[in-house]
Write a structure and sequence with these properties.
By secondary structure, this protein is mainly α. The protein is built from six helices and no strands. The longest helix is centred in the N-terminal third of the chain and has 38 residues.
Length: 170
């Protein structure tokens, strides 16, 4: 589990960097478009598409470091304040819902793949498929699902260890 945790730490850090790059790209593209419009009386038709792609990458990939650092809005206040068996049930329910969210995100990507996989942006000179804006949803969903399972396994092992030692923490 330590190796898996280190891998997820690295993935979360890489995703933070991707988010920063996407925010910088959004700012850069918008500023360049404003300068082109106001001073050169020109415009690039693909600006909206580029901003949309950057935004979706920032939003969905941004879920990964948030989930990694427990920064998503969840029912943590209930889980943190509930003790004993009720607290454990709430913890596992919370992780189960996170797992379901991740799985649904991957399924949604797969379901729309046949529709968006054959379409391309018309404003780009390169053939860029619509799929490029949906990939981060699948990546974030897979990460959330896998890490939710990891958390449930670790918590289950921790509970099993405590029961073996007569209720004391190992």
């Amino acid at each position: 589990m330590k190796v898996f945790r280190k891998i997820t730490d690295v993935i979360a850090k890489v995703c933070e960097i991707i988010c920063m790059v996407m925010i910088a790209a959004l700012v850069l593209v918008i500023v360049i478009e404003l300068l082109r419009r106001n001073f050169l009386n020109q415009s690039y038709r693909g600006t909206i598409e580029v901003c949309g792609i950057c935004f979706l990458w920032m939003a969905f990939i941004g879920l990964i470091p948030l989930y990694h650092d427990s920064g998503l809005m969840r029912l943590d206040f209930l889980v943190a304040n509930a003790k004993g068996p009720i607290g454990e049930v709430l913890y596992f329910a919370n992780k189960l819902f996170s797992l379901m969210l991740g799985v649904v995100m991957v399924i949604a990507f797969r379901a729309q793949l046949e529709y968006v996989g054959t379409r391309f942006y018309s404003t780009f000179t390169l053939k860029v498929p619509y799929t490029v804006q949906y990939i981060p949803m699948a990546l974030a969903g897979a990460y959330i699902a896998i890490v939710s399972v990891q958390h449930m396994i670790e918590r289950g092992l921790s509970l099993a260890g405590r029961k073996e030692l007569g209720g004391e923490r190992a």
